[in-house]
Amino acid sequence: MPEGHTIHRLAADHTKWFAGQKLTALSPQGRFAEGAKKLSGRTLRQVRAHGKHLLYEWGRSTLHIHLGLYGKFRKHKSPPPEPRGAVRLRAIGDDFAFDLNGPTACELLTKAEVSKLRDRLGDDPLRNDADPDRVWKKLSSSRSAIGQQLLNQAVIAGVGNVYRAEILFLLGIHPATKSNTLERSEFDAMWDLTVDLLKIGVKHNRIIIADPQDVGKPRSRMNRTERLLVYKKSSCGACETPIEVSTIGARKIYFCPACQPERD
DNA sequence: TTGATTGTTACCGG
DNA sequence: TCCGGTAACAATCA
Fold this sequence. Notes:
This protein has helices spanning 4-18, 33-39, 111-120, 132-140, 146-149, 161-171, 184-204, 212-215, and strands at residues 24-26, 44-50, 53-58, 61-66, 72-77, 87-92, 96-101, 105-109, 244-248, 251-255. It is α+β, with helices and mostly antiparallel strands. It has two domains: 4-120, Alpha-Beta Barrel (N-terminal domain of MutM-like DNA repair proteins); 132-255, Orthogonal Bundle (Helicase, Ruva Protein, domain 3), CATH 1.10.8. Helix 1 (4-18) packs across helix 7 (184-204) and helix 6 (161-171) packs across helix 7 (184-204).
Protein backbone atom coordinates (compact mmCIF):
# COMPACT_ATOMS: atom_id res chain seq x y z
CA MET A 1 0.00 0.00 0.00
CA PRO A 2 2.37 2.80 0.99
CA GLU A 3 5.19 4.47 -0.87
CA GLY A 4 7.24 7.31 0.58
CA HIS A 5 4.58 9.96 0.06
CA THR A 6 2.11 8.10 2.30
CA ILE A 7 4.70 7.69 5.02
CA HIS A 8 5.76 11.35 5.04
CA ARG A 9 2.13 12.40 5.09
CA LEU A 10 1.48 10.10 8.04
CA ALA A 11 4.49 11.50 9.89
CA ALA A 12 3.19 15.05 9.41
CA ASP A 13 -0.39 14.15 10.33
CA HIS A 14 0.53 12.17 13.42
CA THR A 15 2.84 14.94 14.58
CA LYS A 16 0.01 17.41 14.13
CA TRP A 17 -2.56 15.28 15.93
CA PHE A 18 -0.49 13.81 18.72
CA ALA A 19 2.75 15.72 19.38
CA GLY A 20 3.04 17.16 22.87
CA GLN A 21 0.42 14.81 24.25
CA LYS A 22 0.77 12.06 26.79
CA LEU A 23 -0.72 9.12 24.98
CA THR A 24 -2.31 5.98 26.26
CA ALA A 25 -0.72 3.14 24.35
CA LEU A 26 -2.26 -0.30 24.28
CA SER A 27 -1.74 -3.52 22.46
CA PRO A 28 -5.25 -4.95 22.35
CA GLN A 29 -4.15 -8.24 20.76
CA GLY A 30 -1.25 -8.64 23.17
CA ARG A 31 1.34 -8.88 20.44
CA PHE A 32 3.10 -5.66 21.35
CA ALA A 33 2.08 -5.54 24.98
CA GLU A 34 5.48 -4.89 26.51
CA GLY A 35 6.45 -2.08 24.17
CA ALA A 36 3.04 -0.46 24.51
CA LYS A 37 3.38 -0.49 28.29
CA LYS A 38 6.69 1.37 28.00
CA LEU A 39 5.17 4.04 25.76
CA SER A 40 1.99 4.59 27.72
CA GLY A 41 1.85 7.90 29.58
CA ARG A 42 4.84 9.27 27.67
CA THR A 43 4.77 12.36 25.53
CA LEU A 44 5.10 11.97 21.78
CA ARG A 45 7.60 14.58 20.64
CA GLN A 46 7.62 14.15 16.90
CA VAL A 47 7.14 11.64 14.12
CA ARG A 48 9.80 11.52 11.43
CA ALA A 49 9.92 9.63 8.17
CA HIS A 50 12.84 8.22 6.24
CA GLY A 51 11.78 6.48 3.05
CA LYS A 52 9.03 4.08 4.00
CA HIS A 53 10.06 3.98 7.66
CA LEU A 54 8.33 5.88 10.48
CA LEU A 55 10.19 6.91 13.62
CA TYR A 56 8.07 8.02 16.58
CA GLU A 57 10.17 9.95 19.09
CA TRP A 58 8.19 8.98 22.10
CA GLY A 59 9.50 9.89 25.51
CA ARG A 60 13.09 8.70 25.43
CA SER A 61 12.27 5.79 23.15
CA THR A 62 12.03 5.57 19.40
CA LEU A 63 9.23 3.49 18.01
CA HIS A 64 10.01 2.16 14.55
CA ILE A 65 7.11 1.27 12.30
CA HIS A 66 7.24 -0.12 8.79
CA LEU A 67 3.90 -0.81 7.14
CA GLY A 68 5.16 -3.27 4.55
CA LEU A 69 2.60 -4.21 1.94
CA TYR A 70 -0.42 -4.49 4.18
CA GLY A 71 0.11 -2.31 7.21
CA LYS A 72 -2.61 0.22 7.91
CA PHE A 73 -3.40 2.98 10.38
CA ARG A 74 -7.01 3.72 11.24
CA LYS A 75 -7.79 7.10 12.71
CA HIS A 76 -10.52 7.49 15.29
CA LYS A 77 -12.01 10.21 17.41
CA SER A 78 -11.26 9.71 21.08
CA PRO A 79 -12.43 7.53 22.65
CA PRO A 80 -11.96 4.94 19.86
CA PRO A 81 -14.43 2.12 19.13
CA GLU A 82 -13.71 -1.58 19.62
CA PRO A 83 -10.57 -2.63 17.73
CA ARG A 84 -11.08 -4.23 14.34
CA GLY A 85 -8.93 -7.21 13.37
CA ALA A 86 -5.47 -7.86 14.78
CA VAL A 87 -4.61 -4.40 16.14
CA ARG A 88 -0.90 -4.40 16.98
CA LEU A 89 -0.85 -0.98 18.60
CA ARG A 90 -3.49 1.48 19.72
CA ALA A 91 -2.57 5.00 20.81
CA ILE A 92 -5.17 7.29 22.34
CA GLY A 93 -4.66 11.04 22.45
CA ASP A 94 -6.79 13.97 23.59
CA ASP A 95 -8.87 14.32 20.44
CA PHE A 96 -7.84 11.44 18.22
CA ALA A 97 -6.61 7.88 18.41
CA PHE A 98 -5.05 5.48 15.97
CA ASP A 99 -4.97 1.74 15.51
CA LEU A 100 -2.18 -0.04 13.68
CA ASN A 101 -2.82 -3.29 11.83
CA GLY A 102 -0.48 -5.53 9.85
CA PRO A 103 2.89 -3.73 9.94
CA THR A 104 6.06 -5.66 9.14
CA ALA A 105 7.86 -3.72 11.88
CA CYS A 106 6.58 -2.25 15.13
CA GLU A 107 9.46 -2.14 17.59
CA LEU A 108 11.29 0.02 20.08
CA LEU A 109 14.80 0.91 18.94
CA THR A 110 17.83 2.10 20.87
CA LYS A 111 19.78 5.08 19.56
CA ALA A 112 22.35 2.73 18.09
CA GLU A 113 19.67 0.75 16.31
CA VAL A 114 18.16 3.93 14.89
CA SER A 115 21.46 5.00 13.39
CA LYS A 116 21.99 1.51 12.06
CA LEU A 117 18.64 1.80 10.32
CA ARG A 118 19.60 5.20 8.91
CA ASP A 119 22.89 3.80 7.66
CA ARG A 120 21.30 1.09 5.63
CA LEU A 121 18.84 3.45 3.97
CA GLY A 122 19.66 5.48 0.89
CA ASP A 123 18.82 9.14 0.47
CA ASP A 124 15.16 10.09 0.66
CA PRO A 125 14.09 12.66 -1.97
CA LEU A 126 11.53 14.06 0.47
CA ARG A 127 14.08 14.83 3.19
CA ASN A 128 16.04 18.05 3.49
CA ASP A 129 19.22 16.10 4.20
CA ALA A 130 19.01 14.18 0.92
CA ASP A 131 22.17 14.20 -1.17
CA PRO A 132 21.57 13.21 -4.80
CA ASP A 133 25.33 12.84 -5.36
CA ARG A 134 25.39 9.81 -3.09
CA VAL A 135 22.57 8.24 -5.11
CA TRP A 136 24.36 9.02 -8.36
CA LYS A 137 27.53 7.36 -7.10
CA LYS A 138 25.63 4.16 -6.30
CA LEU A 139 23.75 4.10 -9.60
CA SER A 140 26.78 4.85 -11.72
CA SER A 141 28.75 2.01 -10.17
CA SER A 142 26.13 -0.70 -10.50
CA ARG A 143 25.42 -2.92 -13.47
CA SER A 144 21.94 -3.87 -12.34
CA ALA A 145 18.81 -2.52 -13.99
CA ILE A 146 17.58 0.97 -13.14
CA GLY A 147 14.16 -0.62 -12.61
CA GLN A 148 15.75 -2.72 -9.89
CA GLN A 149 17.66 0.16 -8.31
CA LEU A 150 14.65 2.44 -8.02
CA LEU A 151 13.15 -0.13 -5.65
CA ASN A 152 16.40 -0.56 -3.74
CA GLN A 153 15.85 1.30 -0.47
CA ALA A 154 19.58 1.29 0.18
CA VAL A 155 20.04 3.45 -2.91
CA ILE A 156 17.00 5.71 -2.92
CA ALA A 157 14.52 5.53 -0.05
CA GLY A 158 10.81 5.99 -0.60
CA VAL A 159 10.20 5.03 -4.23
CA GLY A 160 7.92 2.01 -4.64
CA ASN A 161 6.49 -0.02 -7.47
CA VAL A 162 4.06 2.60 -8.79
CA TYR A 163 6.46 5.54 -8.80
CA ARG A 164 9.26 3.54 -10.42
CA ALA A 165 7.04 2.64 -13.38
CA GLU A 166 5.74 6.18 -13.76
CA ILE A 167 9.13 7.86 -13.38
CA LEU A 168 10.80 5.64 -15.99
CA PHE A 169 7.87 6.19 -18.36
CA LEU A 170 8.00 9.98 -18.03
CA LEU A 171 11.74 9.93 -18.71
CA GLY A 172 11.51 7.47 -21.60
CA ILE A 173 13.91 5.05 -19.97
CA HIS A 174 13.53 1.29 -20.44
CA PRO A 175 13.42 -0.36 -16.99
CA ALA A 176 16.11 -2.89 -17.92
CA THR A 177 18.64 -0.16 -18.72
CA LYS A 178 21.84 -0.78 -16.75
CA SER A 179 22.06 1.94 -14.17
CA ASN A 180 25.76 2.58 -14.85
CA THR A 181 24.94 3.49 -18.45
CA LEU A 182 22.76 6.45 -17.49
CA GLU A 183 24.05 9.93 -18.23
CA ARG A 184 24.45 12.29 -15.31
CA SER A 185 21.95 14.62 -16.96
CA GLU A 186 19.40 11.78 -17.09
CA PHE A 187 19.94 11.10 -13.42
CA ASP A 188 19.51 14.77 -12.54
CA ALA A 189 16.20 14.84 -14.39
CA MET A 190 15.19 11.63 -12.64
CA TRP A 191 16.00 13.02 -9.21
CA ASP A 192 14.16 16.29 -9.80
CA LEU A 193 11.13 14.47 -11.17
CA THR A 194 11.09 12.10 -8.21
CA VAL A 195 11.20 14.98 -5.73
CA ASP A 196 8.36 16.76 -7.54
CA LEU A 197 6.14 13.69 -7.84
CA LEU A 198 6.63 12.62 -4.24
CA LYS A 199 5.82 16.13 -3.02
CA ILE A 200 2.60 16.12 -5.03
CA GLY A 201 1.85 12.72 -3.52
CA VAL A 202 2.31 14.03 0.02
CA LYS A 203 0.15 17.07 -0.66
CA HIS A 204 -2.78 15.09 -2.05
CA ASN A 205 -2.14 11.92 -0.06
CA ARG A 206 -2.33 10.06 -3.35
CA ILE A 207 -0.06 9.25 -6.28
CA ILE A 208 -0.85 11.74 -9.05
CA ILE A 209 1.18 11.58 -12.26
CA ALA A 210 -1.18 12.71 -15.00
CA ASP A 211 -2.20 16.33 -15.35
CA PRO A 212 -5.84 16.55 -14.19
CA GLN A 213 -6.68 18.42 -17.41
CA ASP A 214 -5.60 15.42 -19.45
CA VAL A 215 -7.70 13.00 -17.45
CA GLY A 216 -10.76 14.95 -16.41
CA LYS A 217 -12.37 14.89 -13.01
CA PRO A 218 -11.96 11.68 -11.07
CA ARG A 219 -15.00 9.51 -11.66
CA SER A 220 -14.66 7.32 -8.66
CA ARG A 221 -12.44 7.20 -5.63
CA MET A 222 -12.13 3.48 -6.21
CA ASN A 223 -10.24 3.83 -9.45
CA ARG A 224 -6.70 4.01 -8.18
CA THR A 225 -5.02 4.11 -11.57
CA GLU A 226 -6.95 7.04 -12.97
CA ARG A 227 -4.15 9.53 -12.33
CA LEU A 228 -1.43 7.18 -13.57
CA LEU A 229 0.12 6.87 -17.02
CA VAL A 230 1.54 3.34 -17.29
CA TYR A 231 1.07 1.43 -14.05
CA LYS A 232 -1.57 -1.23 -14.75
CA LYS A 233 -2.50 0.41 -18.03
CA SER A 234 -3.16 -1.67 -21.14
CA SER A 235 -2.07 0.84 -23.78
CA CYS A 236 0.16 3.89 -23.87
CA GLY A 237 -1.68 7.20 -23.59
CA ALA A 238 0.95 8.87 -25.79
CA CYS A 239 1.29 6.42 -28.70
CA GLU A 240 -1.34 3.69 -28.14
CA THR A 241 1.29 0.94 -28.18
CA PRO A 242 0.25 -1.93 -25.87
CA ILE A 243 1.91 -1.59 -22.46
CA GLU A 244 4.28 -4.44 -21.65
CA VAL A 245 4.55 -6.13 -18.27
CA SER A 246 7.63 -7.90 -17.02
CA THR A 247 9.21 -8.65 -13.65
CA ILE A 248 12.17 -6.72 -12.30
CA GLY A 249 13.15 -6.87 -8.66
CA ALA A 250 10.46 -9.49 -8.01
CA ARG A 251 7.74 -6.95 -8.80
CA LYS A 252 5.72 -6.25 -11.92
CA ILE A 253 6.99 -3.40 -14.04
CA TYR A 254 4.79 -1.74 -16.66
CA PHE A 255 6.38 0.12 -19.57
CA CYS A 256 5.76 1.31 -23.11
CA PRO A 257 8.19 -0.45 -25.49
CA ALA A 258 7.92 2.43 -27.98
CA CYS A 259 8.33 5.39 -25.60
CA GLN A 260 10.93 3.54 -23.49
CA PRO A 261 13.12 1.81 -26.08
CA GLU A 262 15.69 -0.76 -25.03
CA ARG A 263 19.26 0.44 -25.37
CA ASP A 264 22.00 -1.42 -27.26
C1' DT B 1 -12.77 -19.18 -2.23
C1' DT B 2 -8.87 -17.37 -5.00
C1' DG B 3 -5.57 -14.42 -6.49
C1' DA B 4 -3.22 -10.26 -6.33
C1' DT B 5 -0.80 -6.81 -3.90
C1' DT B 6 1.83 0.95 -3.77
C1' DG B 7 7.20 -4.29 0.78
C1' DT B 8 11.27 -6.31 2.82
C1' DT B 9 14.50 -9.69 4.39
C1' DA B 10 17.22 -13.95 4.48
C1' DC B 11 19.46 -17.29 2.17
C1' DC B 12 21.62 -19.70 -1.66
C1' DG B 13 24.25 -20.27 -5.90
C1' DG B 14 26.85 -18.43 -9.78
C1' DT C 1 31.64 -8.90 -3.77
C1' DC C 2 28.01 -8.37 -6.65
C1' DC C 3 23.86 -9.97 -8.47
C1' DG C 4 19.59 -12.67 -9.43
C1' DG C 5 16.22 -15.92 -7.78
C1' DT C 6 13.20 -17.87 -4.30
C1' DA C 7 10.62 -18.35 -0.13
C1' DA C 8 8.45 -16.37 3.79
C1' DC C 9 5.58 -13.08 6.14
C1' DA C 10 1.74 -9.70 6.62
C1' DA C 11 -3.98 -8.21 5.82
C1' DT C 12 -7.50 -6.96 2.71
C1' DC C 13 -10.49 -6.87 -1.18
C1' DA C 14 -12.46 -7.68 -5.77
